[in-house]
Amino acid sequence: MSGIVTPLVDPTHCETCTIRHRGLCSAASPEALAELNRIANPHHYAAAQTIISEDVPVDFVANVVSGIVKLTKTMPDGRQQIVGLLFPSDFVGRAFAKSWAFSAEAASDVELCCLNRKAFEAIVGRYPDLKQQLLLSTLDELDAAREWMLLLGCKSAEEKVASFLMLLVRRSINAGCGQEAQSADPIFELPVNRADIAGYLGMTVETVSRQISHLKADGTIKLVDIRHYSVPDLNRLAGLAGQEPPVWA
Question: Which of 2, 123, 221, 230 keeps 20 to 30 A from 130, CA to CA?
Fold first, then answer.
């Protein structure tokens, strides 16, 4: 995608958007929402399609509406490392900068609400609530990065895999993807392959596979289809991750 070329013309689009009350848009006043609506451009990406290339100038930022985006960093020798996953309502790109230090790729089919970067920056400058929400989102990302440093440095293989799966469970339910979360077993999508998970967690593929097999064997998780798992024992999974179970568990 080279730029924002077709702004929305539907004045009610933002009001009916599925992520309207989450993420950055949750802080938007009716006036700010109307301005965002005028510069919004929905864009769809197929799984494995590149959204943003690292260190390449880009003229838009975006919110994830549906699907999952993976953030990657390429080493000088060509190796690629996944450094993060973005879910619905998460912010993609870097405001107030012409490029981003990471690449963004669609881990599944993805819909983004893209916003011209300069126009977005001008709107944020006029609405303090939006500026504060953007700051809070940035701080949340910083906290998440510090938590991941703890995971990589101190947790066992079992704890790492359980923590990764708990991340997917929590975000899937928050995004409304785990439709049966509160009535039966929560369901989450495994958006990346085991080689990517291994790189993300600093483990070997064999160790990741072994830990997932253990979790299936003891009934903590259950395979639904090739990409989805249910969690019959959410309390156990949370305990293995060293976390408190969600309040709705």
Answer: 2
